[in-house]
Amino acid sequence: MPVARSVGCDPTGRGTKDTVPATIVKEAFSVPLPPRGSELRIKIGGAAGLGIKAAGQTLARSFVAAGLEVFDLTEYPSLIRGGHNTYTLRVSPRPISSHVEAVDVLIALDRQSVDAHLDEVIDGGAVIFDPEVTSTEGWLPNPRVRPVPVPLGKFAKESGGPIMANTVALGAALGLVHFPLMFLVDSLREQFAHKKPEIAEQNAAAASVGYGYVTKLAGDFWMAVEPLPGQPKRLLVDGNEAVGLGALAAGIGLYAAYPMTPASSILHFMAAHEREAGVVVKHTEDEIAAMNMVVGAAFTGTRAMCASAGGGFALMVEAFGMAGVSESAVVVGVLTRPGPATGLPTWTEQSDLRYVIHASQGEFPRVVLAPGDRTDAFELTWKAFNLADQLQTPVIILGDSYLSDNRQSVPMFDLDAVTIDRGKLVTEGDVTEHPEAVDEAGRYLRYKLTDDGVSTRVLPGVTGAIQLGNSYEHDEYGYGSAGEPADMRAAQNEKRMRKLELARTLVPPPVTFGVDVAEADVAVLCFGTTKGPVLEAMRWLEPDGVKVAVMQVVTVWPFPADEVSAFLAAAKRSVIIEGNYTGQMQGLVRERCLRDVDKTLHRYDGRPFSPEMVYAKLKEVAENA
Amino acid sequence: MPDVSEITGAMDPTWCPGCGNYNMQKALAEVLAESGMRFEDYAMVWGIGCHGNGADFYRSQGFHGLHGRALPLATGIALSNPDLKVIVNMGDGDGYGIGGNHFIHSVRRNIDMVAIYHNNQIYGLTTGQASPTSDQFMQTPSTPGGVVEEPVNPVGVAVAQGATFVARGFAGDVEHLKSLYRQALDHHGFALVDVYQPCVTWNKVNTFKWFRDRVYKLEELEGYDPTNRTMAFEKSMSTFHELTCAPDECKIPIGVFYREEESFTYQDGLPQLDRPMWKHAETPRDISKILEAY
Prior knowledge:
The structure holds 2 protein chains of 2 kinds.
Chain A: H1 24-28, E1 40-47, H2 52-65, E2 69-75, E3 84-92, E4 103-108, H3 111-117, E5 121-129, E6 146-149, H4 152-159, H5 165-176, H6 182-191, H7 197-217, E7 234-238, H8 239-249, E8 254-257, H9 264-272, H10 274-277, E9 280-283, H11 287-299, E10 304-308, H12 310-325, E11 331-336, H13 353-358, E12 367-369, H14 374-391, E13 395-400, H15 401-405, E14 407-411, E15 425-426, E16 457-458, E17 468-470, H16 486-506, E18 511-514, E19 522-527, H17 531-541, E20 548-553, E21 555-557, H18 561-570, E22 574-578, H19 584-593, E23 599-602, H20 611-623
Parallel strand pairs in A: 1-4, 4-5, 5-6, 8-9, 8-10, 10-11, 11-13, 12-13, 15-16, 19-20, 19-22, 22-23
Antiparallel strand pairs in A: 1-3, 2-3, 7-14, 12-21, 18-20
Chain B: H1 4-7, H2 20-35, E1 42-46, E2 62-64, H3 70-78, E3 85-91, H4 92-98, H5 100-109, E4 113-119, H6 154-160, E5 165-170, H7 174-186, E6 190-196, H8 208-212, E7 215-217, H9 229-238, E8 252-259, H10 288-291
């Protein structure tokens, strides 16, 4: 094993001070990657309350139905009306794993959208706007962009109402890029299927008017997007839906939560399916109640989950610790938004890594899984329930707003791969049929000291399985006062901590992408949703001759020190990319691997990493090697 | 069916000699024994406090949870296994102070469970600080100048919040307490039993004698109708005693303040709670139909 690079004292906790300011993003716009015209990037901007996200998702469904891949990005302030919202849709004939910052077609529903986003439009890109709403003063004429004035409001009123202006604009955008209108019409009919039939038809008419106007009157545009027929069925899901679907597949029986962005839509998803699927879904009085209810449900053997943002998880922490000491099999979603406190409610960050690894007083084993995309989110969620049961300890799914809020087309989830492993669980019969679980007198030992730390869990209701779950330290039966002697405390503490060693053999290992690390010019370590922009940048660097190896740390706790050490040891130049200020994953590398990386890239302004930003950084590292 | 000695057969209690918790345990154990329920049929949940040490003094299945959080923990049990009768034990600081939010919401939810409050008007386990039900002006280590706040009125709050069963007991009258426990166990809905349970170590004011001089039984009060919510609320206000109140000026009613025979419980609103919910995790759930929408 090579000698680790020396790690100096770093009082700032920041690690190698190599944070790239967000302004690099603007510079990267001058490089339209991937090549101009190889994919379509549409941005819709306007005031909150105009239905921008719904319109964008309708558009996204149209492209997916046509066999294309999409990735969307919704950006909005924490408001219901007013404020500036955007929806950005990336469409490509090949698989894509993130948004990009460059825009080909900007649909500006108001002047603010022009002012805020004109710079993002590539040379030769188009701006669709309503001249009645958005004045041309100060930005037109413009040699860089192609203005496409469309009387959106007028057409909307003629079709049935001014609210349909964005539908007219969607039609106009498709007309501009020569994409068949029928996919949008089908998608609109689907969107309004639960409303009166005339609503869908009015919207179809509005889209058609916008489409026809641009096709006939706006002149030819250089970009053309074609359907890809014959593609297998793909799903268009956001991260919260993927988590909810994974939980359903895993046999969840109770979900409890208090609304908090960006986790709230998991609650909506679960509630929407509670009766058909058979799940008790409870919107509780607070997150404290949610976590306690989940522990109560786990006591009866029910697969149970709660989720929140970091702020809500703060309220859950005491009961999260109770789940640890009482060896309760629970799953907790923590979807990070920038903190601390209320922070930036609708934006993203990766700043809760250390927090979820350490949350709670005292020590107990836990598993933290960090999905990098929607497919990961589905798979890691159903696996989280198995791990919680096998280990009888809490499992956290650590995501962020970038995962929760944004949709991506993904291959159909592999339902055949879903398994249920409940570990050492007895659900029926008589406890005395399980000699490994009882004392000489036949009394059940809920917290029996075992070699692997896991005791046979016999559900309440099984004859003779009288047991006391306990937030106190306890003896093998669960009695609190009998847990006070020093030897029993030490024995129970060691028993629990042994489960962390078992966990290492069960948890998903890190995943590598790209070239073998020994061949790579740059080796990248990342966790969570940074995976998307990193993989995107990795592909962009191929034509430049820059070879990249990527390791995604999927299970962030217990930290896979052996795999990370081997990866970094083999790397010529290594970079950690993480969405926080202090270098939380870098700190884990230093602490657990006694080694460091060469470079870091941080982002902590609430915005996700873009592939442009990662591309620029990796290229710089490779060229300055 | 287990008898009283089996139900209380786990460990010898360590409560102070004369503590009201002894009588509360006696009353509950006797009612459980006569109820015909097996150990497997009910779950007891405990908060943190002197009462909560009772978790070790019963041989019963259940959970000794966190300070103030017994109700949501118990709710998780009740909402995931309809076969279990859930009985929650809490203290006054535990259930009305730190857990006050859960108290209000559990009442309005009308979860089918029994909630017993061991109300000694003091923090016992943390050595005698004022509790949310301490009388105004009571001097304690945390309130040397006297409690400034009005005490919480649990019965009044519960009645006002739409509770479907509200009773108050006194640990000095075991037979009466047993009758309240029996009715609470029979009730379909959230059954609140607030029990004055004098702390012989830290509360030198509200003693057994202090209560004996003041309590009277609602069922013996002529014209009292426990199905009349307004009457129950008025009665809950009239009983708000004060530290300096003379026995004949300050009568404290015990008994059933209010009951609603036909109540719609939270569980009644959950048709999907038709089995122990762990049964949904025997095989992977088929989500292929749901995926069609994506």
